[in-house]
Amino acid sequence: MALSSRARAFSVEALVGRPSKRKFQDPIQEEQPELQEKKGGEEEEERRSCAAGKSEPLEKQLKTESSTTASPGCGSDSGDGNSSESLEEKDIQMELQGSELWKRFHDIGTEMIITKAGRRMFPSVRVKVKGLDPGKQYYVAIDVVPVDSKRYRYVYHSSQWMVAGNTDHLCIIPRFYVHPDSPCSGETWMRQIISFDHMKLTNNEMDDKGHIILQSMHKYKPRVHVIEQDSSVDLSQLQSLPTEGVKTFSFKETEFTTVTAYQNQQITKLKIERNPFAKGFRDTGRNRGVLDGLLETYPWRPSFTLDFKTFGADTQSGSSGSSPVTSSGGAPSPLNLLSPPCFSPMFHLPTSSLGMPCPEAYLHNVNLPLCCKICPTNFWQQQPLVLPAPERLASSNSSQSLAPLMMEVPMLSSLGVTNSKSGSSEDSGDQYLQAPDSTSQMLYGLQAPGNILLPNSITQEALSCSFHPSYGFYRYNFTMPSRLINGPNHLKVNDDSQVSFREGKCNHVHWYPAINHYL
Amino acid sequence: MALSSRARAFSVEALVGRPSKRKFQDPIQEEQPELQEKKGGEEEEERRSCAAGKSEPLEKQLKTESSTTASPGCGSDSGDGNSSESLEEKDIQMELQGSELWKRFHDIGTEMIITKAGRRMFPSVRVKVKGLDPGKQYYVAIDVVPVDSKRYRYVYHSSQWMVAGNTDHLCIIPRFYVHPDSPCSGETWMRQIISFDHMKLTNNEMDDKGHIILQSMHKYKPRVHVIEQDSSVDLSQLQSLPTEGVKTFSFKETEFTTVTAYQNQQITKLKIERNPFAKGFRDTGRNRGVLDGLLETYPWRPSFTLDFKTFGADTQSGSSGSSPVTSSGGAPSPLNLLSPPCFSPMFHLPTSSLGMPCPEAYLHNVNLPLCCKICPTNFWQQQPLVLPAPERLASSNSSQSLAPLMMEVPMLSSLGVTNSKSGSSEDSGDQYLQAPDSTSQMLYGLQAPGNILLPNSITQEALSCSFHPSYGFYRYNFTMPSRLINGPNHLKVNDDSQVSFREGKCNHVHWYPAINHYL
DNA sequence: ACCTTTTCACCTAGGTGTGAATCT
DNA sequence: AGATTCACACCTAGGTGAAAAGGT
């Protein structure tokens, strides 16, 4: 394997001489290595029940606990009149898949390359979720939030990441990547591994492809959100517009540092070893270099013959069969995140309303403040950070570029900021945007409609960010047909019974309202 | 190029000696060659205004014509209270893209390979649509319907397709392929080429991947449907549940014969010449065979140097820049389709409710007859043709297989068949399922809700098909990010203004109802 | 005979890290 | 000097028709 010259020049001795942070006695114990040693308190929070909502407002909490009708596996009884149950929530649990691989990276110090064109994550975030209402509709989305406000640099001779100063986080619209299966029933979500393979990270602040925009040399952490979409359950009572909830999960081992080129060659080596797309750089016997044996001798890898299976085979695709649930249980919002200035949310919706200078229909949907409803077009056009250029929108061609369903709509922060109906961004919104600077898992419920995924604590500094950018919800549609539908079907009819079956008729459809790609 | 031995053995002389059905004077005239010569009456219908709805019920027709607020380009004014406009319709027009290429194939006699695993179409169906309400939400879907009830065989010595008897159409659930961008605003639909590249055809009656199931050696024709989804426009009035419409378009030149191996080597050659994935079989100078010059001398190809540009470059991706709109105007339902027994519709929805033995919520949505609402679980379980096996469903793993959003729900024919609330499939539904055997573009409107995409005329014989299978609506999610979102955004904030931005908060979301993947 | 299935070489399309070049 | 970009070789993943094999 050929490591980068830089890495080779600076990191060899450190690599060899660096004492291992941890050692595994056997694969069993390895399953939650960092939980055993590192940052006990914080890890403890992550390890215990990952049910979200335990710090939610009492009202919601009670509803969550009182829900008994929607246990996984009984998905056939969500019928009439259960819109009154739409507020119910259960203890949603999330388990990280491939956590062993994640932990291997984490122990080294995970690095994720970000490029202008967008780079996938490896490993990618894959989770399993439990405790959803099988009959309820949910969105599942992911975002990537800063772990702190520090800029880092990698010190080669010590193979360590050092703080290189405070960061000046860009006033970029943080974006969400909405899982392409969204919205989907709880039953379906729970039945499958929810994978974010196709999400891409970029350092291009001008990115127009919906990738997650990050800054290089910073530490980030992915968060997975499970968002209810109640009204779809009983569409005959849509006028009730029930308040719904969001559960957020994150996993310590998925923390990573963004880079434009790998700094730690151990990371490079592990990526090459595990990422199928980097197979071309693997040692095939012919081009083994002097450093090739380093990873094998590194202590986080047990000396088993079946190591790879333990870690999910060659790829990360294994659903961590050897991993107990506790090893990667997600903790709702356990992160300590400093709020970078202007890290405020923006809401991207599917293409549906893209190109509409003011999709007022959606403004309605999110219950925008009056100022927005009155002058919706201006509202958008005044937000260069949010509004895509019409030309660019026009160039969106799904047939050529496989454009996804995306669109954007002001949500959260825009709503909060302008919620006073004054249109001013300075004199309002604090009640939603400003939260106590605490590490508790408390979730503050917003009784007022129209507030979505209000992220963490955001101060006046954040609010002063012009245009109060909101979270960018992107919806990628990469999924392919699943194995469903259509059991055995060999019935044939004698063609003597021919019937007229002419085209040319167009029938009216009665479309019942449901939930759109509003995430 | 190496043609199949069979084709070589049987078709050479026919290929060379066959008189061209048509000759082009120049590329300009070539743009609608078959419209000039072939089947004048039927083609004429296709060429004239492809506005759908002109034969619709008066009520709907009037509404269509009275709509003036939603002209393409003004997409920002669909706001409050426009649910009353949701019934409005305009003259929707559809234009086939790449029609020149389609016509080249059509002149030869288009063949489409179908395989067990599923095969893409080449050319694929790509359309442009006009006349939509920019602010309205639409689904766009495609299905493939039989042209007749005949089985064909290819006679090599005459290079012709001959009727080989009447067909015994399988009692297979006809399926729809819903464009992955669905639902989407009319403005967005109109701005882009709507492509169905990823749709696949299969001859596997047991297909569980959502592909379009066809029978080999039969003639089919794709149809593109534009389906309104009104209630999304004004979600504050969802209780109104307005009736909505479907516009169906088809293009004569997209007719094709299904094969498991190409019969006519001219087709083979043209496919190789134009399909990028078959580039490996193109003549690179080294392996030119004796037949390689045949296509070049064939008359549908003008002897221009820029021929390929005329036909949309090497691939079919060109949006027929040289093609006038009239050349491929879609005619709503101009086909003469005999109804194969059991060719009745089934409705597949996104994965959302898959695995729910009875997604009663959706039964509600489609306003199923009482018998279904009362015993929904049995309703599904009694339909082996429709209900996917739970095991298969469970194996659906979007992270591994990139499973799409799919689910199924009884719609159209199921509704029609059981619409008498008696549960009997014999004594009802004719008013919806039986249509005059005519080639007119008449669209019959269904005042009763819950009838979607009622296909063509279906007689009692069709209704007698057990389980009254319904159309299979599949939703593939292949799309990628389009170029949108996020204008210049370089605002930075002094990091002195650090604020707490901790994770651990979970905010409540007020989800307003919208439209789901109900197609 | 005729049709279908399977395997294969050869493509497209795009995800890897490399290493040189470039930027700041 | 550190960070970023770019062209590149080398992969994965999957869409082609050819040709042989299999089925009826």
UniProtKB/TrEMBL annotation, chains A, B:
GO molecular function, one term: RNA polymerase II cis-regulatory region sequence-specific DNA binding
Broad class of the protein's primary localization: nucleus
Xref: InterPro entries: p53-like_TF_DNA-bd_sf, T-box_DNA-bd, T-box_sf, TF_T-box, TF_T-box_CS
Matches recorded under PROSITE patterns: TBOX_1, TBOX_2, TBOX_3
Protein location: Nucleus
GO BP term, pick one: cell fate specification
Domain T-box residues, every copy: 96-283
GO cellular component labels: chromatin; nucleus
Positions of region (Disordered): 1-91
Transmembrane segments: none
Bias type Basic and acidic residues, positions: 35-49
Entry-linked SUPFAM superfamilies: p53-like transcription factors (SSF49417)
Classification via SMART domains: TBOX
Domain of life assignment: Eukaryota
One family name in Pfam for this protein: T-box
Compositionally biased intervals (Low complexity): 71-85
Keywords recorded for this protein, A-Z: DNA-binding, Nucleus, Transcription, Transcription regulation
Keyword Transcription regulation: yes
Name assigned to this protein: T-box transcription factor 22
Biological classification of the source: Eukaryota, Metazoa, Chordata, Craniata, Vertebrata
